[in-house]
Amino acid sequence: MEKKVGIVIAMYNESKSIKNVLQTLKEVRQDDTIIVVDDGSKDDCFNIASELKGIHLLKHIYNLGQGAALQTGIEYAKRLNLDYVVTYDADGQHNPHDIEPFVEEMDKHSYDIILGSRFLGNTVNMKKSKYYVLKLSIFFGYIFGGLKLTDSHNGFRLINIASFPAFEMVQNEMAHASEVLDIIKVNNLKYKEMPCTITYTDYSMQKGQSIFNSINIMLQYLLGKVQ
């Protein structure tokens, strides 16, 4: 039986990118369920997304953080009885053509989660400073999470919510990326890394994380674990 795939997008003040992201997804992934969670945006992105037909559009009244928005979308996907969920950024960095190889691999080997890796795949216009930040996060991911990965903070991933319906992130903000690795380890999930493409634009880099923000994210995660 063909698996039902949902694409979950956390959106916060993404009026400059969301229309193109959604239109491209709808063209490439016509049979997938697209779920957009507006995380208390203050710009016009909710209205822009609502103009496109066939989008499941949810809204947080207050800004809770990307992790919380993604989890809201995942819980909604479970209610729709979807099998797989793709987490997908709203800033245009991801390539929808990467989804199909992930789904095919999940179908063949029944992984619980497949993680995207830009270092196994391709990066476009990535600055050296970003490269070093990401390599630092890989190091911390291994030290504190115990998983040897090539890319530990990639927002592109495929989660098998049919095989592991208990998947739940409690880190509301950007620290959820580290929490995902912890979920894999604690629950002994079957996982794999696969190549994907990340394209950096001036806009996506402005939305991205600086070195100081990345350190703050790691501290958020560690504090969350010891509480």
Helices and strands in order, then pairings?
Blueprint: E1 5-11, H1 18-28, E2 33-39, H2 45-50, E3 55-60, H3 66-79, E4 84-88, H4 99-109, E5 113-124, H5 128-145, E6 157-160, H6 176-186, E7 191-199, H7 202-207, H8 211-226
Parallel strand pairs: 1-2, 1-4, 2-3, 5-7
Antiparallel strand pairs: 4-6, 5-6
What does this structure look like?
This protein has 227 residues and is an alpha/beta fold. The protein has a single domain (5-226), classed as Spore Coat Polysaccharide Biosynthesis Protein SpsA, Chain A (Alpha-Beta Complex), CATH 3.90.550. It is 41% helix and 22% strand. It has eight helices and seven strands. Strands 3-2-1-4-6-5-7 form a seven-stranded mixed beta sheet, with helices on both faces. The protein is globular and about 45 Å long. The N and C termini lie far apart (43 Å).
What are the key terms here?
single chain; 227 residues; alpha/beta; Spore Coat Polysaccharide Biosynthesis Protein SpsA, Chain A; 7-stranded mixed β-sheet; 8 helices; 22% strand
Concise synopsis of the structure shown:
By secondary structure, this protein is α/β, with parallel strands linked by helices. It contains eight helices and seven strands; from the N terminus they run E-H-E-H-E-H-E-H-E-H-E-H-E-H-H.
Evaluate the radius of gyration: 16 Å
Helix/strand class:
alpha/beta
CATH architecture: Alpha-Beta Complex
User: What is the number of domains?
Assistant: 1
